[in-house]
Amino acid sequence: MVAAVLVSALVACDRYRPPTDCTNWRYGPKDEPAAGVIPAEYPRTESGWKLGSLRDDDPAIRSSIQNQCGQVGAAVDLAWGVTKGRNDVLIAVLDSGIKWRDASSMADLARNAYLNVGEAHPAGAPADGDANGDGRFDVSDFGAIADRNGNGVADPEDLILDPAFSDGVDDDGNGYVDDISGWDFLYGDNNPLDTVDYGHGTGEAKDSTADDDGARDVGSCPDCRFLPVRVGDSFVTDGGRFAAGVLFGLDSGADIIQEALGVTSNPRQAQQAIDAAYERGVLVVASMADEESKHANLPAALEHTMPVNSVTQRKHLLGGQDGWMALNGCTNWGPITWVSMPSSSCSSEATGLSSGIAGLIESAARDAGIARNLANPATPGGNVLSANELKQLFAANADDIDFGSPTATDPANNYARRCASCIDFFATESFPSRKGWDQVHGFGRVNAYEAVRLVKAKRIPPEADITSPLWFDVEGTRGTVAVTGRVAARFADSYSYRVEWATGASPPAHPATDRWRVAGTGSNLTSPKSGTLATIDLAQVAAALPGGGNGVPEDGTGKPDEDRFAVRIRLVVTAKGGTADGLEGVHQKQIYAHDDPDLVAGYPKRIAGLSASSPVFADLDGSGGQELIVASADGEVHAYTSNGNELPGWPVRTSVSPWWPSGSPTARAAGIPPIRSAVMVGAPAVADIDGNGSPDVVVTDLDGEIWAWSASGTALRGFGAGIGGGAGTARIDPAYSRDDRAAQDERNRTKPGFVSSAALGQLDDDPELEIVAAAMDRHVYAFNHDGSPVDGWPVLVVDPAKVSAVDPTSHKVTFNDPKTAPGGELIATPALHDFDGDGRDEVVIGSQEEYEEPVNAGDTTVQNLIAQQGDVGNSRLYMISPDGRNADNPDRSAAHPDDQAYVPGWPAKLGMILLDVLPVIGNGVTTQVAIGDVKPSSPGMEIVATSAAGPVYVFEADGTSAYGTGTGGNDNPALWAGGLGGEQNGRYGAGRSSSDLIATASAFSGPAVGRLDADGVADFTAPTAGFTRLIDLSATESQAPSDDQVLAWKGGDTGNALPGFPQVTADIGFFVSPAIADLDGDGRNETIVGNGLAVLSAHEADGSRPAGWPKLQGEWVVGTPGLGDWDGDGVAEIAHVRRDGVLLVWRTKQRASKLKDWPRFGGNSRNTGVTGGG
After folding, report:
1. Residues 6 or more apart from 700 whose CB is under 8 A from it?
2. What's the mean pLDDT in 1001-1015?
3. In 3-state terms, what secondary structure has residue 668?
4. pLDDT (tens digit, 9 = 90+) per residue, 637-680?
5. Chain centroid to CA 570: how far?
6. Is residue 267 within 8 Å of residue 675, measured between CB atoms?
7. Is-cis flag, bond preceding 658, omega within 30?
8. If we measure between CA atoms, which residue out of 566, 388, 394 comes closest to residue 485?
9. CB-hemisphere CA count at 13 Å for 19?
10. Residue 944, beta-bridge partner list
């Protein structure tokens, strides 16, 4: 009885304290850390707001309950009074590597960098390596060491560069040779050096673990250690390397995985690696990305991660600040949001700081003597908390962000609030937040102090985990769906759970509330339970949805509504008795319940590894019906017949990636297979390349190889393993992407591999086709049908006018323009067309170059406004002779070895109103051009092109603008700006649905060409974003109007929009280009375009939507839908692939015989970028 009373008193004393009493504030002298605990380098002033517990001095904010009584940050300063971390808590930082050679960074990080005592052991030291007896093993235990990297600081790279330690022997037998301090999975070696000085990984390590040394920076867990794992040269990488990094972290004993990443692919190994971490009690703290969008970033959107977004100071565009909980302009939100973390540097900093806080929480648990969760493996130094317990601690102790509910000091739905001195150019409002969980801020703002304080008291919430359905599954409106998962409450005497569901993606606006329907319960449980927890009747769900789950995903105005058929499933576990008494563990997922009569039976269908490559249709076996061909991120190329089976001989596979950790003990124990080289953005090219009368399938891979298979699935000689075995010859030259400071820097961010697909055409006079592909090493390659290089190729792609020197071996470029932005890769698919009529194709390719210079736009409508935005400029577009380097074009630069390959008049400038906005996916030109006769008054075909963030241009074959030049001799693009006063709005269509018209720029996407109106002339179309939407990428909160769009321009002489455009779309689109086809069979084509959210849109020239459209796709897509006659009935199907591995196929009314305009990625089966219509 006495024990029960003591527990009850302890629980009452140590409950979470909400920030709701602004007069009797929750924190006081009793919460202050002891003298000398707060790191000297941390300012307990407004400048240290992110980690602080201080309150705003403004009385209006300080007295506002909605503003949490003015608390500015995550109360890490108070948490440090409980713990500053532990030397045995290790955080694996998966990112761009570490700037070992930067002395300032090493002063903060060298002491906390992990060292593997099994590979680097100080002479004469005890087994744990602690030679100096200070209780930890770090670089100081080696005494005076040679400064091998020349930075003036003793750091781990000095050991990595020491041949006595990097001796080529796997001394500890862990499968990694000489893994002294981390690993590099970009190149597969033991030095995670940030070769290109990108700095993101170094910043991430500082955010979580910068040492408390009295100067410079301090991390949120300054006594934790970090493990540097290089998985890319920026924060954008591929899913395979992410998976490898997770496995290495687990193999090295990491307790937290910190990943502020976005990945361009989603192989099955990514989820398998996360699951392995989860099963070992290792939490993956994941970034929600940076585009102020609802799309679910990968890998954060995979199962068993903790997605984090960013809140920041609520600063208004033209002046004034009124609060500390504004959604950052460079963060995302949506159904996967778990918590919001205060940060100024986007989701990345939020992820780093949160990872450090996870380290604090685990440290507090170890300090409190909490026993290991039996779900975790019994490994020395392993976590005592499970990954789910860590997540629940973040959620249970977060400070709810709720500007929707009225309080004694604040009105309801208080989203348009602003201080007297605050000035906005646009209508600025907060995103809608609600009481409890919402999709903007999840469970609220992180509070580190509340979490570690309650861990110290062993107040650990129950575990709640829904394992199925998976995120964003599209269910039907009949039958049932089983909810499976795991529940547990080890700090309670017993527990109960309930599974319930509600409609909508987020709680409704005040005063309405969610209506939760209970689907299953359990009570008086005393041990963990796994398996089926409830069964949901989909007919009941459908009855609660608009239209009974039928209809199309749009609102009453005809704009897309991605949440119309959304359903949330929630698992709530409640503890009874014990130190956890009254605490809840919660897990929630979003799915859809929808009936679409156009869906082909059996679809949507999950196929592991599908993500970035677009589906296409082609008749491989001559049966009359076409096969659906789609490639995966784990190196498989499938050929499905209409019955869902693979064609005999398929799938085919690429080779195992050379950087994959084949010796990983964790991968072996978890049964995770080696990853094969990913097939990325674009689509397989299908044509008879060797002239034998049968189609072949050609793809590129991320490790720099080109593959070609016959229709039967046999590898062709010279490609991959090929006929007769051995390596193929169609691959990149490794000299151009060496992992070497002498070959790389921030402006030479080259890598070995292909992101985009190959195009097939005629570069010479023989009848066989050549293969052309652009690589991430800044070169365009060309190969014959037997895999041998075409003479005169590869060609270096960089503006001769900007080059002062090119290294003769590595082709590292020295630029003469100091305002050259970082970059170097080529990631767009080349386009091929015979522009000069000699029977051979020229090659058109956009680069990732970015130069800060006046935007190439003769229309001055918004030039002054753009100039005030800061970094603006141009990228470059090239036309290359089929002879490549052997062309006899003028030599314009003695420094440039390949400039004679460029056709005179090229390169052209493509304007950019945002420079270096995102690495890889947002630099320069990211998508293929589209070629067609869009201006019949000019001879020949035109080239439609755009950068990642700028106007859409139409060029003639000589490099001049089809619409002439304007102010300053700059090229006139197609219509792209209405102007501040709407002076050019009349050039947009009267039937448009978007009002965000100050400017309408491309946004990470590309064009397509085809006939959209009835005049028979080819029009062109592309995804765009309004000017205010682009402002949203950097400004806090939401500016209105803020529209993602699709725009279509009328072919002819004006460059004006078609009557119905621009139309609002659900989201921005990365690597997206439209398809063009007649979906409803009315004789008029539609532009069909996907995006980052759940809706696939289709619009005719007048803006109207065909019957049954838009379509619910459920999740993020990239690329282009593919159309073809799958079942041989003469009518086309349309297919698309979600990034999370879901294939969708719908029936259309498009006559297959009339599929000409733009029915797939690349416009045609050869991926040449040329329209078949108009």
Report:
1. 679, 680, 682, 706, 707, 754, 756, 757, 758, 773
2. 96
3. helix
4. 999 999 999 999 999 999 999 999 999 999 999 999 999 999 99
5. 26
6. yes
7. no
8. 388
9. 31
10. 930, 954
Residue pLDDT, tens place only, 808-838 = 999 999 999 888 888 889 999 999 999 999 9
Q: Which two tokens stand for residue 841?
A: 């194709």
The encoded tokens of residue 666 equal 């964790």
Q: How far is CA 675 from CA 97, 179, 636, 703, 751, in A?
A: 22, 21, 10, 11, 18
Query: Cα-flanking dihedrals φ and ψ of residue 352, to 5°?
Result: -65, -45
Mark out the alpha helices in 695-838 (DSSP H runs): none
- DSSP 8-state symbol, 1173: -
How wide is the angle at C-alpha 689 spanned by C-alphas 784 and 652, nearest 5°?
100
Q: For the whole prediction, is pTM greater than 0.90?
A: yes
> What is the predicted pLDDT for the residue at 869?
63
User: For residue 870, is pLDDT > 90?
Assistant: no
Strand 236-237 with 262-263, pairing: parallel
* Tens digit of each residue's pLDDT (9 = 90 or more) over 718-754: 997 654 445 578 999 999 999 999 999 999 999 999 9
Q: Which long-range contacts (CB under 8 A, 24 or more apart) does 766-773 make?
A: 767/691, 768/689, 768/690, 768/691, 769/687, 769/688, 769/689, 769/1166, 771/685, 771/689, 771/698, 771/706, 771/708, 771/730, 772/830, 772/832, 772/843, 773/700, 773/706, 773/829, 773/830
Confidence of residue 1031 (pLDDT cuts 50, 70, 90): confident
For residue 613, what are its two tokens? 């490559």
Nearest Cα neighbor of 920 from 542, 612, 605, 509 is: 612
Cα torsion at 605, 611, 616, 620 (round to 10°)? -80
Q: What is the pLDDT of residues 558-589, one digit of tens each?
A: 999 999 999 999 999 999 999 999 999 999 99
Question: What's the rounded Cα separation, in Å, for the pair 403 and 327?
Answer: 12
Does 324 have pLDDT greater than 50? yes
- Please state the φ and ψ torsions of residue 273, each to the nearest 5 degrees: -70, -40
**Eight-state DSSP code of residue 801:** G
Please tell me the distance from the alpha carbon of residue 882 to that of residue 842, in angstroms, as a whole number: 5
Cα of 607 vs its chain's centroid, Å: 20
- Tokens encoding 61: 């904010």
Tell me the three state secondary structure of residue 109.
helix
- Cα 250 to Cα 192, 284, 863: the distances in Å are 17, 11, 52
Q: By C-alpha distance, which of 234, 240, 236, 154 is closest to 744?
A: 234
pLDDT digits (tens, 9 = 90+) for 392-416: 999 999 999 999 999 999 999 999 8
Q: Is the peptide bond before 1062 cis (omega within 30 degrees of 0)?
A: yes
pLDDT tens sequence across 447-500? 999 999 999 999 999 999 999 999 999 999 999 999 999 999 999 999 999 999
* C-alpha to C-alpha distance for 501 and 517, rounded to whole angstroms: 5
Q: Which residue in 1113, 1019, 1118, 1103 sits closest to 1068, CA to CA? A: 1118
